[in-house]
Design brief:
heterodimer, A: alpha/beta, eleven-stranded mixed beta sheet, 11 strands, B: mainly alpha, 3 helices, 0% strand
Amino acid sequence: MPGKIKKYSEMLRSKSISSVELTTAYLDEIERSNGKYNAFVSVDGDRALEYAKKADELIARGEGGALTGIPYGVKANICEKGVVTDCCSKILTGYRPTYDAAVIEKLNAALAVPLGKNNMDEFAMGSSTETSAHGAALNPVNTAYVPGGSSGGGAAAVRAGLATFALGSDTGGSIRQPAAFTGTVGLKPTYGAVSRYGLIAYGSSLDQIGPIAASVSDAAAVYDAISGWDKRDMTSSPLSRSASDKLTGNVKNLRIGYLKEYFEGIDPEVKQTVESAFGFYEKEGAVLKEVSLPALKEALPAYYIIACAEASSNLGRYDGIRYGYRATDYDSIDEMIKKTRSLGFGKEVKRRIMLGTYVLSAGYFDAYYKKALRVRESVAAAMNELFGAVDVLIAPVSPTTAFPLNYTSANIIETYMADFCTVPVNIAGVPAVSIPAGESSAGLPVGMQLIGAKFTEDVILNAAYAFENSFPVKTDMGVTI
Amino acid sequence: MIEKKEVLWLANLAKLELSDSELDEMTREMEEIVGFAGQVATAAAGTEEYRGVITEAEALRGDDIGASSTQEAVLSNVGGGENGYFPVKRRRHDAR
């Protein structure tokens, strides 16, 4: 599948369309339809058209690259200088970063066209984009359902044809699960492959920025543009490899493992849909086998302990003093800070801060946090050992299809447990891509995950590319140029 | 068993204020959430020390000083600040 980015790029170069025209089409569509999905929480049309104009000038000079002139959405936790970046939280109301995130610097240099900020769960904490201070995002496939989270706005924007691609972030599944729920492609790169400089932190040892797109080749093009070592992020790595040039669709002799534990206790339609891909890969010459990772069961509570511990520390900076919301009714600075945080944070954020504080506090530190780190080491080591025997792991993304609206707030622990397919990938720091594998009998998308060893984005994207035509992303909504 | 006074102590550490009804709700939720997280205590996995997130490449760099944010930029989110400070009223009724 050529994807939208390559198609648009060719049209821009052959002058059959300009970036200004393309961007205008997206802006018009956002004006028409965004109200139905709440995929964007802010749009700056003038700014977008400025970038589009500069992109057209670059293309006219015969310069520019794969993403020049291509309109995209930015998750509301990725800093753009001078643009309100509030993580969909009241506590960051009106915050305008004084610098661009590294990924934004790269996309600006390429003259891709930023349309606006995509909706998200507050501070990336959630699986439905319902904890957003700007109201829930809705799934364009069926608006009675969530688009997933926390990058649900970006996934909804791509599925609804309101953006060519979107930048999301994934700490425990927040790119892959919304991609699965909306029937789009979502890539969580290897930890360290994409700089976190300018990503407002949730769980710093887990967070990664990645693309949500309408095709595998689009996701690969964005990954190539945003990945690479950055000296400002000490966890950034020089080991990432390009992926776009490796998309051949050839999976002959590819060793694919399916993790036994991932297929237990999940919705039967999800299980059947993902398992139906096994036959496809075998026909194409790949070699499939069942593998096991018993430590997977412990990965989920370990993830929540580590992520919330880090979040409680990262969110300690929000005190109303230097930016964002500040309470006004107080009699001491200490009271101001407490009131600001209590009124400024939503319920889910407060729950996770409280859990993080608990596991880091004296008396519980060893039993919870230190133990969780050891579990993390075991899961990561076991997963990396599996990659000695297989090249790719195939798995569901979520045990169910999209949740109905209002389900997650009434079922906290069940919602946390629904992360069990995605979280081990973040714990181990390996890359994974979610692609559409089919649909449920209710017409809801079912996603499939392809997981690889560290820095093998090219391998997993190629495996995804091979399968893609079996169930391509539907591009029947919004801008259909 | 998580008790309310423990939840209040944690809230104080986290600089959060809870009303009586919020305290009741948070206590119930913490009981559930800590119970869920507590599964790590009995995890069979977990005997090796954690090595860190990046083990494949050198994390440290030379101590070279680069550009930093200007004072003006940093104060821009509080309307420019006051004499290089972030002005915060000590109490609600203070003039400034």
